[in-house]
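The data are quoted verbatim for completeness:
=====
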Amino acid sequence: MARQAWTRAADAEPSPWGGDRDGPGGRPDGARPNGARLGGDRWAGARVSLRTLNTIRWIAIAGQAITLLTVEDLVGIDIPLLPALAVTAVSLLINLYAISRRRRSPFLTERGAAVFLGYDTVQLTVLLMLTGGLENPFAVLVLAPLMVGASMLGRRLVTGLTALTAACLTLVWVLAMPLSWPASYGVTLPPVYLDGIWAALTLSAIFIATYVYKVAQSGRDLSQALIASQVSLARAQKASALGALAAAAAHELGSPLGTIAVVAKELARDLPPDSPWAEDIQLLQSQSARCRDILADLARRPDAEGEMEPYAPLGPVQVVEAVAAPHRRPEVALEITVTGAEEGAPSPLPLTPELQHGLGNILQNAMQFAHSRVDVTLHCDAAALMLTVADDGPGFPVSLLERLGEPYVSDRDERLEEVPVRAGGPGTMGLGLFIAQILLERTGATVAYANGPPGSTPLGAGARVMVSWSGALPAP
């Protein structure tokens, strides 16, 4: 589902390969750009704005030029100015070329962005080797391209960029020209200090790359999950619209089909039995009758198979049963109690996609971790509506109770150790309750989590999820 969402988004974006699109993703063979896949260590976008990287490089070029032109006058340190400016000028020319390329293709692939940032690392390394190496206080800037890359590239390219940065720092440590400090300063840095600077920068490169990559990847995973949820909701809405269209078509086609049947019957009555058209008229009658049966089947199929329209006015019990149906387990009983309203009255809960997916996720968790029973209580009155889902399982871990509903918080592993239910296995992302809460909050609900009294269930305390609406209730 998420992969299809990425495919649609990718087809709507400019091609990162430059030129016109000849196939999906802009490549002549229709293949996706390397690394542009969802999940794992790759970001689905696999596209980096060339404008952003150009802007960062312009800032670096300006800073390098100003520093090189003023350091001798301000500090009194003699540096090889012309070679250093020549290195900076190369970056300026490359950036001008990148601007001309940007008119044709405003995006880079992951690999192209890695090459772009790799050059910046090498260019800073050459400058440092000409201007004192690790004695230069600006040596820390060699980590800047790595930080940018770790925020937007995949794991393999970030690993390669980290290795390149560590290799460049080692070259600077071993081969750099020392700074010519003025004699009046009396500065002599001991080798052990330079060794420490090298070790600190190398370890910082590894730590920064790992940390920034993990933080950026978490945000990308969350974005993917929300995209998948949006696609699922859109499909549910399209399915509802398709059902309404089928019913309307069955209604509208009934009249012309009836006219055809009447005309065919009159023709069959007027033609003599030995007419060469008699067989064709019989075929026309049989096919019109078949079409009438198909339309009648389309009109009655939802009710016959128990498939209600998503926005039809159902009773409270029917709403909960419809949402819970895909997640039922034979050994777990589902008990539904309605208070404050008659059971036969229409439910104030419209069966919208947000409610189906949000409440469905909560009921699925309850069914998975329940021992033998799940209780759903729906209290309705004129001003408020509260729905409570309680299971007789082990309950939520107390250490996670206050954080439930936040992204990347999962109690699945701990609860599965206590209940013998196959619930998909450990290692989940912890986004289920978060997405469920987001969807329910879109209907105006508030969601709260709690446990029952200790020892009140065969496996522990039992988990409780309260979903409540106050004021204006959700409308279909």
Notes: The beta strands are 47-49, 107-109, 333-339, 373-380, 384-391, 446-451, 463-470.
